[in-house]
Amino acid sequence: MSSLAVKLVAWNATANPTRSAVTVVSAYKDGVACGHADGTIWLYDLELAADNHADPQASDPSLYPKCMLSAHQSPVAVIKASEISAPSAEGREATLISVSEDGDVVVWSSADGRCISRVRTRLPGVRPTSVCVQAVDYQSAAEDLVFVAGEGPAAYVLSYPSLELVYEWRLPHAEWITAQVVRKRRDHFRSELVTCTTDGKMRIWSYDEFALAQHDVFARGSGSGSNDGSPEQRQRGDTDSPKVTPAAESRSASVDGDDDSGAEPDQAQFSLDAEFAALGEAQAISELVINPYNDDEFLAVSAQTVRLFASRDSELHELLRWRPQRSTEAQFAGAGFLAKSDIVFWDTAGAVFSVCTQFSVEGGSAGMHTARLHAASSGAVATALSRAGQRDVLVSYASGRQHTLAVVLPVPLSSVSGSANRPHVAPADARSGPRNWLGQATPFAMNGLWAEWLGDVSTEPAVTSALVLRSGRVAVGYADGAVRIVSQAALVGGHGDGADAARLDGHTGAITALHEPDAAGGLLLSASKDLTLRIWDAATGECVFVLPTQSAPAVRLVGAGGALVLGVGADNATTLVSASALERVHVTAAYHAAPERLTVGADGEAALLYADGSRRQFALGPQAAAVAVALAAPRAGGAWLGAGVLGAAAALALDVDVEQLQAAVARAAGDGATADEMRALAARPAVGAARAVLAQLCAWGVSAELDGVKRDAFGLRAPARPLALALSSRRADAHTALFPGRGGGGASWCVSSQLNAQRMLAILVLARGVLQGKCNERRAVEVINFYVGRLPALVGRRFKALSLLALAQHWQARNGSLQRAARTLLLAAVRGASERQRRAELFYWSSMLARGTGDGEDLQALTIVCVIGGDFPALLALTARSAAAARLQALALGAHGAALALALELLARGYAAFRPYVDSQAVVRRLAAIMAQAAEAGGGGDGAVSFALVGQAKQALLRIGAADMAAVAAALGAMLGGAVDERWRALQAVGVVAAKQPAALAPHVEALAAAVVGALEPRRATTRRRLLGAGGAALRALVRAFPWVSFDAAAQCLAVGCADGRCVAFDVRTATRTAVCAAGARVVAVAVAPGAARVASFALDGVLRVWDPQPSALAMFAKSLFAPPAEAQGSVAPAKTMAIPPGFLADTDDLPVAELLRVAALSWTGERTVLLQIRDASFSLSV
User: C or N terminus of the chain, fewer CB within 10 Å?
Assistant: First the structure.
């Protein structure tokens, strides 16, 4: 599967948010969320012209559709805005928690609508009505907690944001929970859960949130979460529960129930601290709101009463009470706090009431004033007061012809009327007094918002099915029963639909499934709600045959081998059809369980296996081919394109595999194609489709210059059909569909950092694929530079920075174009960010790395830390350095494959920052083993490493050597004195380093040369024979790299000049040092005469010396006894010298090593004549 794919959605005007009623609304930071009866959630961007709390009219809100979230299968019951406690690079990540009536819980990102997590199984036995979040210290290992309760005998505690089940709480009372809130107890040792039930009672439960957050997931039905038991068993909680009012008797209820094992009671428990008949009547509290400025106060809202309570000293005190106006039959629907002393509550008629509790103002008791959200003829279906950024936002939905959303930016009544602490500030429209505190509600007709956003999008029937055919064309089924077959380029780009589209008419109901049989070439099967199956000739559009289905339409068509196709109905009835014989082969009646598998034996006996384990057998005859088919919904996809329907939106969703599309273009065009040749190839399906996808991804109308580049370089046209980006979570089966950009296309680049990164990656990969060839590389670079550097400035402050996580995922991509694009974008994003942003990114990803999740995100966090820390080491904290270095070293020494390659590259990239925390010798040993193509895992495995990994190890060794060659030389020297395998690897590594980095290796040449000679010990013939080839290659590499190293193969004599003026001779046959000649300055050139009779050396003191390197008689005698002699001590006097005129060595005192390599060269032209070359001059000396 490709590592880079984009999802595009083709909207039509019928797929709009008014198709189903709104059931719940919520405001969040910079937006509004609406949950619908069909399970979808629509997000809207909320923009304010100004931020003036004193004058609400100066902050006229604007509302724009943003995206649609699809995961739930039943009406959305609750939407809760929250933030993940663990800080991200952009601060605390804002999320939306949505709960549907069937107990499905999903966490979405409010920034781009992506699905963060989804509960594994729906919560049983409860119809959720309330959700609250308990924040736990993010520095602890535990996650936050989500409490879900509603109409049912149980309440559930989930971890947040992972949504793992933490606790299933069987309620100790028969009444359902209608509202709940959490708060921290005053002693700060435990937290409190305040619940309200259908009988109007309020209960306060205490619990330890840390113990609860770290609680194991209980097995449902095992009794672990049961509250059944005696009162004595329920008293195992807090025995010192505080005393409460006489009207309510205190009791404690433990959640862990009976435990026959005799184990200690579970510490993660709820203890009942107090119980109150809060309203004094059997009236359910529908909403409970804690004062964010004083958690001792909270509002309790029921249909006929709103009350303000205060809990002090384990007692509940009623402070204020409000009832509906007598002139209306509306009921209270919700309430909220605006400030320390201001309360807002509303009713189902759309009336909003403002109350200042500290002092009264003119116009009513306790300062209550009224305003309306909707027209008099419209009632408020759903209303919510939420904190959206720095402003409180009141949003309300009213059904009817317009489906109106009303948005108000309320101002605290105390700020309008003045108080002891705040001066009087009057709103701009306060001509009629403070009754106008709310200002004018801004209505937004949802139909109008949708029409304005999509503009001239055509109104066509909703898409109900889609299939990519083997020919590359796409079959699309519609709600009116039509089937259209179009080309990929036309489907994506919208150009030429009428010319190349075939329309198949015949069905009278919506198309429910499409299928192309395997062994019936050119045929297409379609199923419809008209209870028929039609077989079409896809080439001509002719209907070949019509077959009836069972009592329900077929919702799945699955190939059953050859020309057999199995249709599975909505009622689980099946119809087996032969496309070649044009007949029904077998039918089965409806069943309560879904069929999961079809098997056909060699004898023609077939069996259908169902989800409940049952099976139905029938005979097909010997002509049927043996097959076993899973009946899951097949993926409707081709080589690079997949097609489907996006949830309840009835919109066409296209999955584009960018890498496969680029590969198809490369096969069609070839590497040397010019721009004109690429235009000529536009008729090819792959090239035309790539251009259409590229045109959809590019931003049109943002810059005339960019539009010109796209037209001239790519031959692109602006797409006729506006497609929007989408996100899908296969694991959670959740989808997010974004809307086309407004305002010239720039806004579509501002949705989220993740989508921006995905979009830019796709553009750069496709741009290289469409352009092809070296001659067009310049234009591809133009596109890169524009999108990376200039587009954010053109879009403005709403542009979201690229997601480093999305880019780090492709740092080691196998596709070369994708890897280059990801690295280009990641480095540009890091270097273009401010220092504050870099610090924030480092802090967040370092904390993620310290947690050690061990998954793919751990490697991506490591990539980001090393990339930023490598370029900006001063920003990297010591703890982050040590954590990253430890992780890198662990991967470098023990990982395999892609993880090992990534670790080697990152370690080399940031070695300067990580050097104090890394075992350099161990890392160099590992690199040498990889370069020698030794077994993986330090020599303990069986398989050899890949050539790509060998190259990666070489690059890592060279980068580490450039940063710390002393450590590399020391490690190689130690390896040369170790075991035979380590010597062989070290000899190869010496040759690589000497060839690539001679300047850095120069100070260590003498020690390494001595170690190489010592590694070739003569005492073990087998070892010497094995190492002789690698040793000779290492010596030759040293000779080629350094003019002050010379070797005579015939005499096996090695001479090395040193920085301190010495010149040392070695006898490789005996692995000994035979002679040392001292000079007055650094030796820069050495040459061994044929037969090793003499050695010539030249130093920076301007003297050419010739001396005898032959070993002493004692050494020769020891050599004959097969033992290495004692190494030569002292210094050998030169046999002859020659001074060079000073003018030829001017300005050589402070030359860098790289220049010293080119100062002089020595060579023997005969047995007694040596030639010295200094720059352009030559000198000869005869001895």
Answer: N
